[in-house]
Specification:
- The chain has two domains: 34 residues; 191 residues, TIM Barrel (Alpha-Beta Barrel).
- It has nine helices and twelve strands.
- With 272 residues, it is an alpha/beta fold.
């Protein structure tokens, strides 16, 4: 009888020890999974910036502290658009702009989505026209769609009717294709005259947008002032180069320079 009781006690002790071995503290189990390379439940940290060649996440832009710029002075009884290449703001932001619409890389759409990158696209119908679906996807991600004429002709020196046709014609096309009526206009090659500004006003344009910095295949170049990025700079990410760095590569180069200056990217349309 005593022997049977001893066997039962030994069996109970063995079962108790086995149960203790299987009952691991939840915190200990979590640490064990981490050591084994198993992620705990919950969102994984965002590492998409590394995929696009950045060493740190792109900072979220602040809420704009600058009111949109007013129109330019009144001339001949009407108010003309203001011409800008820089936005006067203390916000630590610059603005990325893209011209023509020749490059329709679907991976650029992925880049804009994953980095939540604010961009403004100045489209030319004869260049972008066959692929407006690409720009509709970018618009769905928040990209601004703006006017860059119908045929990308140099406007300065042209008669009023010709300039108006180029600007108003693209207003109509963008409204028909993408459902937008731009407020911003960039003249091809940055060339304009007083007739351009007058024609732009008659087409519903509020601001003629140039640029202070441009990303070339070699590096950033500046049209005036300091040769470094400053808050409020409008940057042209271009020009299109079929044999040079891709649009994504040029964008990454600009973003690295932006981050080196302690800046980030803002939405141009929030400031103009």
């Amino acid at each position: 009888m005593r022997r049977a009781r001893g066997l039962a006690a030994a069996l109970a002790a063995a079962l108790l020890l086995a149960g203790c071995a299987q009952s691991v503290d939840p915190i200990e189990r979590l640490g064990k999974k981490a050591a084994e390379g198993v992620r705990p439940h919950g969102p994984a940290p965002d590492r998409s910036y590394r995929h696009w060649g950045l060493s740190a996440p792109l900072a979220r832009p602040p809420r704009p502290t600058t009111r949109p710029l007013a129109l330019g002075p009144r001339t001949g009884g009407r108010t003309l658009p203001r011409v800008v290449d820089h936005v006067p703001t203390r916000d630590p932001v610059v603005f990325l702009t893209y011209d023509d619409g020749a490059e329709k890389d679907p991976r650029f759409v992925d880049m804009v989505r994953e980095l939540r990158l604010p961009v403004s696209l100045f489209l030319t119908d004869s260049v972008a026209g066959p692929g407006y679906g690409h720009f509709a996807r970018l618009r769905g991600l928040g990209a601004g769609i703006q006017n860059h004429t119908v045929d990308h002709r140099a406007l300065a020196g042209q008669p009023y009717a010709a300039q108006r046709a180029e600007i108003c014609g693209q207003q109509h096309r963008l409204r028909a294709r993408l459902g937008v009526r731009p407020r911003l206009f960039r003249p091809p090659y940055g060339a304009y005259d007083t007739t351009t500004v007058r024609a732009a006003a008659d087409c519903g344009i509020s601001t003629v947008v140039l640029w202070r910095a441009a990303m070339t295949p070699a590096d950033l170049v500046f049209t005036r002032g300091e040769h470094r990025l400053r808050p409020g700079d409008i940057v042209l990410v271009g020009p299109d180069e079929s044999t040079g760095p891709t649009l994504r590569e040029r964008t990454t180069r600009v973003l690295r320079r932006v981050q080196q200056r302690g800046l980030t990217v803002g939405r141009l349309e929030d400031y103009l």
